[in-house]
Every structure is written in C-alpha cells, then in structure tokens.
Specification:
Elements lengths: L2 H8 L9 H8 L14 H60 L1
C-alpha cells in the first residue's frame, strides 16, 4: 500500500455517533439571558459615558474660550474709547494753548 492510499483511507468520512450532538450541546455553557437591557452592562455604560464626555468637554472648552474672547474684545473697545477721548481732549488743549501763544 502506498502513501496516497493510506492517506485516502485515513481521511475517509465516517458518520458521527448518534448521541454526538447531545454530548456537544451538554458540554457548551448555558446561554445567557439575552433580554438583559443594554444599560445593565458596564461596558455599554462606559462607552455611552465616553461618547457624552467626548461631545460635551470640547463644546464647553470652545464656549469658554468664546466668552473670554468676547470679554477681551469688550475690554479692548473700552480701552480704545478711553484712549480716543483722552487723545481728543489732549488735542483740543494743544490747539487751545497754541492759539493763545501765537
């Protein structure tokens, strides 16, 4: 007998024993109850929390920067108004004093 014949004989199909399926099914762990709600699972809660944090934190940071930017703009505009008023008064005083001396 050559090697090919022995391989063919070794790889021949044999029918499974009659109680094979029952034995395999008994060896498997019992199925978990699939009616458990998603919020009872820790991983789902952790993922949901991560998504919420990922959405909220950047929004809060951007909003905070926007508010600080508006406050800085308002302070700058106030400083420019004060400077403008002071320069106008200084210019008027210079014109007033230079007219008298001429």
């Amino acid at each position: 007998m050559n090697i090919e014949d022995r391989l063919r004989e070794a790889l021949e199909r044999e029918p499974a024993p009659a109680d094979f399926k029952r034995k395999v099914m008994q060896a498997l762990p019992a199925k978990k109850n699939l009616s458990i709600f998603w919020w009872n699972r820790r991983l789902s809660l952790a993922l949901a929390l991560a998504v919420i944090v990922a959405a909220v934190v950047p929004t809060v940071i951007v909003e905070n920067r926007h508010r600080r930017g508006i406050a800085a703009r308002d302070q700058l505009l106030t400083a420019l108004r004060v400077t403008n008023t002071t320069l106008r008064r200084t210019k008027q005083m210079i014109h007033k004093n230079t007219r008298r001396s001429s």
